[in-house]
Fold this sequence. Notes:
Layout: H1 9-19, H2 21-25, H3 31-39, H4 41-50, H5 55-71, H6 84-89, E1 92-97, E2 103-108, H7 119-136, E3 142-147, H8 158-171, E4 176-182, H9 189-195, H10 201-204, E5 207-210, H11 212-215, E6 275-278, E7 281-284, H12 292-301, E8 303-305, E9 308-310, E10 314-317, E11 321-325, E12 333-341, E13 347-353, E14 360-362, E15 365-368, E16 373-380, E17 392-399, H13 409-418, E18 426-437, E19 444-445, H14 461-506
Parallel strand pairs: 2-3, 3-4, 4-5, 11-18
Antiparallel strand pairs: 1-2, 6-7, 8-9, 9-10, 10-12, 12-16, 13-15, 13-17, 14-16, 17-18, 18-19
Helix pairs in contact: 1-5, 4-5, 7-8, 9-14
Amino acid sequence: MEETFMDQVDELRKKFSNNFKDNIQKNVYDQRDLDRFQLEDLYACCFLRHQQGSIDKACDMVDVSLRWRKELALNDLTEASFPLAMHESGAIFYRNHAKNGNPILHIMVAKHRKDTFPALTVRQFIAWHIDKEFLANPGKRIVVLIDMTDAGLTNVDIDLTKFEISCFTTYYPALLAYLLIFEMPWVLNAIWNVIKKLLNAEQQKFVLLVKKPQITQYIDRDQLLVHLGGSDTYKYSYVPVSENVCSTHNHDSDNESLVSSTEQSSTSSSVLRKRVTFSGLRKSLTFDGFAAAELEDQSLSHKTVNNVHHGSLADIRPANHLTFNMDLDKGDSLSHIQISNTSKQRLSFKVKTTSPDVYRVKPHTGFLAVGEQIDISILLPNGHRSGDTKDKFLVMLLMVRDDVNENNLDLLSSMWKSVSRDSKEYMEYRLICDKVYGSASTGTIVTKPVIKSMTTQFSNSSLEQKVEMVAVQQQELANQLKKIVLLLKLLIICIAMVIICVLFRGF
């Protein structure tokens, strides 16, 4: 079983906050990605898994990945961000599962033509598809099947190939199970040998060249499309997401490549995993960003009455916003979170924040008996009063037995690590901080604009020139082969005519 490195997550977050403090303050990253990294243990742990527990390498990867996500504006991409022709092309889609249970992302190389669409748009389109699975199921891997059936030199895009490789080796941590390249044409082998140098020895282990006889070692026939040697007669067709608002993300429907992870409804029993789309507005209850609309959406699955959130295990006050009055003469600002256990079992609770070095939370962990209520104090020291207004808090609750207490914290820690977010024994709720100047009723809430930047380029000009040179040489070789074949055909015709003439003379 793959090691999770979950016990190193807090250390990774602390190191990242220290090493890249300036980047955080300068809004180098999308705040929604920062929130996800600070609050989602599974997401943060992916970086450690990718780097085999090396905190230094994982920390650098977080920086690179989060920069890249903002440059591509990934959190703002929707189905409507791309031309209809891209959706209809069927160049990329999810379909079926490999033998290891991982979903398969199909990339149809023959359907790609360089310069048909802007390079940035194509990259965003690919990243958008990858992102759906990565954010919907953090910690789960996928199998990428690069289908080169009927592909030729006109379909080769060196820059795009480098981008696809970088997605799984640099930007999406611990996502790739393995990459299958199906039916690589011999004329492209030399190009692939050069591209393969972009991967280190460990990464090359995950890239497998297969043909029909070998592909069934990784994917069962009933999970393979017919042209791949399987029995699945599926033919890709595009249906707009507006016609499939309630479709299930199971990688088996005909519309899997169309509905984003933030626009699909899960069949999970946990209401916290529910995603709903209304009039084109993306609303998500999982941690796919922390916009005000998302906080309002929490009332879709739980009742909010008199500023109290009535959850599946507990009542939480306030319902949405945690207010800090910044006009107090005493300097420090104090706010409270009140939790009441409304379940039929004892609860363990945790309170996390995106800025653990700023806020003083007491108590931040503990237990709640059935019917018990606790008031959690959150202090914002005077020295941090001018800080970021987009801080968040996450309240986490887990059902535990009566014999689980402070004397067996190892058992409690194990329960927290193993619990599924979809479990009925688990609940989480998010609050956004409002720093109000003046009185809480008349003050204004300070917000900061989100800076968006687009475009990302790869720098490796010497390697790129070498790859392009090989591509040109391959094209020249193909042209020469065509001439040779034509000459052979003419030679055969001439020989045949000579033989016929000799035979007639004999008569």
